[in-house]
Design a protein that fits this description.
about 450 residues, two-stranded parallel ribbon, two-stranded antiparallel sheet, about 10% strand
Length: about 450
């Protein structure tokens, strides 16, 4: 008995608390959606609500502009401060702006919100994968450039082996006795490789500058693309909410296909609460979770569009991984390439004759010289830039949220109409009356055809 009484008392308290919270939220919403406050207290509450909304939007802007778009913190702080002040004043004075701002919240669950998430996934993929692919391609170009330069330099430096052999031969001939009757043998090799090396250095420096310029241009382009895409999508979302409100206020047919409670009550008042067969599949019920045929078609189309963009994102990610793995195989293959060895064998012999026909050796010189040439020197091999491991999880999360928004856009559309009806109650009555008149005319037409 004591336990049952305690549970009952707790349930009563929770019910009372929830009832008070519901009344408070209803009062705040009425003040925020009312065209003109009724007294000073409501003006004060409206000021607090507008200030709270402006500060919330400002905080979201700071996070988005600083951490996502990488703007300067000081510039963002100045912009956000002015934005908060102006937004608070505008929300206080302009009633339709409050409605547009309220429509923005469910608009995040419609096509506009999905476009923001999809564009974020695409921008994140492009900004991450394309520079990484460019850096790995630059690695390939550097490897070819460095190997070619080292090979040419090694081939030119191989002349030192010849010069060393000539020096040894000259030293050997200098040791010949003067009595041998032979004159000094002087061999020279003069090869000037400074001009060739200068041309090679100039060519490699120009190639390196061009590749670095391309890499920097890609980074700048991806950053600018990310900022422009974010700004354009926010403007499109605001424009979409504005267009919906204008259509709601100016056109009685615009998005007027909901079987609301007000419409069903009006039908019941007319004496027959049943809908004509023509409107059973056309009208969308605002209560419940059952989806109409039109709403299911919208969801299917949204899933198909989302799948197309998902293929693009994962194609770029796969290409980034493919280039990295292919270059890894190339790196393993180049490490097994053996070097090239140059060999010079010098074998000289000076002989004479005794009594004009008996040969005998005088001097003998034998030596070998070698020079190695590496195809891919060790200093030319730099580590590859591996793909970002977090990009897959980030893109999957954004696409998964987009999928949830595709399924939840039905209820977001319903909520958007309810918000407009709350802000403009008289206009909702006109729209309901227009739809009711159409239903009654269809009903009378069906009766005449039946008779």
């Amino acid at each position: 008995m004591a336990l049952g009484g305690c549970l009952t008392q707790t349930s009563t308290r929770l019910s009372t608390f929830w009832s008070r919270v519901s009344r408070l939220l209803k009062f705040l919403w009425e003040v925020f959606s009312k065209p003109t406050p009724s007294n000073c207290f409501e003006i004060f509450i409206l000021l607090l609500l507008c200030l709270l909304v402006s500060m919330t939007i400002a905080a979201l802007l700071v996070v988005w502009m600083v951490y996502s778009l990488t703007y300067d913190v000081s510039g963002v702080a100045i912009f956000v401060g002015n934005f908060t002040l102006i937004m608070t004043v505008v929300l206080m004075l302009v009633h339709p702006i409050r409605c547009i701002l309220s429509i923005l919240v469910p608009s995040l669950g419609t096509d506009q919100g999905r476009k923001i998430l999809i564009s974020s996934a695409l921008t994140l993929t492009v900004a991450t994968c394309v520079p990484n692919m460019a850096q790995n391609v630059n690695w390939t170009a550097f490897l070819i450039r460095c190997s070619s330069s080292s090979m040419i330099a090694g081939m030119l430096n191989s002349s030192q082996m010849t010069q060393r052999a000539l020096r040894d031969i000259n030293a050997w001939t200098a040791k010949m006795p003067a009595s041998s009757g032979m004159s000094k043998l002087i061999l020279k090799q003069e090869i000037d490789i400074s001009s060739v090396w200068h041309e090679i250095s100039t060519m490699t420096d120009n190639m390196k500058a061009e590749l670095q310029s391309l890499h920097d241009s890609l980074n700048v382009a991806s950053s600018v693309l990310q900022k422009l895409t974010g700004a354009i999508l926010v403007l499109l979302m605001v424009a979409s909410s504005t267009r919906y409100l204008i259509g709601y206020l100016t056109d009685l047919k615009y998005d007027n296909g909901y079987a609301s409670r007000r419409l069903m009550a009006s039908l019941a008042t007319s004496g027959d609460s049943t809908l004509p067969a023509k409107y059973h599949s056309r009208l969308v019920r605002t209560a419940g979770v059952k989806l109409m045929r039109v709403e299911v078609q919208r969801c299917v189309w949204g899933v198909m569009v989302l799948g197309f963009y998902a293929i693009i994102c994962f194609a770029l990610i796969s290409l980034d991984h493919f280039i990295y793995r292919a270059l890894e195989v190339l790196l393993a293959w180049t490490s097994d390439i053996p070097g090239i060895m140059f060999h010079i064998i010098v074998n000289l012999e000076v002989s004479g004759t005794a009594i004009g026909f008996i040969p005998f050796p005088l001097l003998h010189f034998h030596n070998s010289y070698s020079h190695s040439l590496d195809i891919v020197p060790a200093h030319c091999v730099k580590p590859l830039s591996s793909p970002n491991s977090s990009i897959i999880s980030s893109v999957c999360l954004l696409l998964f949220i987009s999928l949830l928004l595709v399924l939840g856009q039905v209820f977001a559309r319903r909520l958007r109409r309810k918000i407009c009806a709350s802000f403009f109650n008289s206009r909702e009555e006109e729209r309901t009356g227009y739809l009711l008149q159409k239903i009654l005319e269809e009903r009378e037409k069906a009766k005449e055809e039946h008779n």
